Amino acid sequence: xxxxxxIGSVLALGTIAQVASASPSQLTNEQWLMPSQTIASSCYYxxxxxTDGNFVLSSNGTSSPYWSTGTAGSGGYARMESNGNFSVFxxxxxxxxxxxxxxxxxxxxxxxVDGNLVVYNAGNAPVWSSNTSGxxxxxxxxxxxxxxxxxxxxxxxASGGDYTHFAMAQPRASWCxxxxxxxxxxxxxxxxxxxxxxSQPVCWLKDRAxxxxxxxxxxxxxxxx
Length: 225
What we know:
Blueprint: E1 10-11, H1 16-19, E2 26-27, E3 31-33, E4 37-41, E5 45-49, E6 55-59, E7 67-68, E8 77-80, E9 86-89, E10 95-98, E11 108-111, E12 117-120, E13 126-129, E14 146-147, E15 149-159, E16 162-167, H2 173-181, E17 188-192, E18 202-206, E19 211-224
Parallel strand pairs: 4-14
Antiparallel strand pairs: 1-19, 2-11, 3-8, 3-15, 4-5, 5-6, 6-7, 8-9, 9-10, 11-12, 12-13, 15-19, 16-18, 17-18, 17-19
C-alpha cells in the first residue's frame, strides 16, 4: 500500500458509503461500466457492458438486445467521462464508440423507463439519445444481473483495507478497475504507476474501510453495488 508519509493531505472520508453513491439507472462523472456491470430502470430496461465488448440495451425477458454500440470484439468498458462524453473504450484505453457529447461537464447518461438511453447536460437538457423510446417491456424480475457501477477517482489513494496486490503487464488504471470489478470480495482499488513501487505498475484490491489521501500520481475507485 501507499502510506501517508509519501502522499498529500487526508480527505475526511472513511467508508465506501461516504465516498460515493450511484443511481441504479444512470452513470455520472467518471462512473464506468466494466464487463457484466449493468444499470437499469425499474428492472425493465437494462444497459449492460457485455463481456464480448459490446454495450447493449435490452428489455428483461427478451433474448437479444434492441440496441447496441456494435463494439463486440473491440470494446472493453463504458465510461461517462468528466468532459461529458459517453464512450466505449478498449483495453488500450482508446475510444471505439462515442456519443460525441464532450463539452458538457457534469453530464449524465440515464437508462429511462421508456427504453431510451439519454445523455443529459448539467441543465437537464438532452444532448444525445439512442432513439429507442417505447421498446417492448419484458417481465419485472431483476434476478441474474450485476447491477453495479465502478466509480473512478483520478489523483487519489485509497489507503488501507488491502487483501491482495500484484504487478501488471501494462500501466493502465482501467485494468486494475477491471480486476476489482470481477471479484465479489473487492470493494475498492488503487492503481500505482510504474516507478513508485518498483519498475512495474501495481494494482491493490481492498475489502475493508480505508482512508483517502490526495496524490496526483495514483488512481483509485470503488465498486458501487
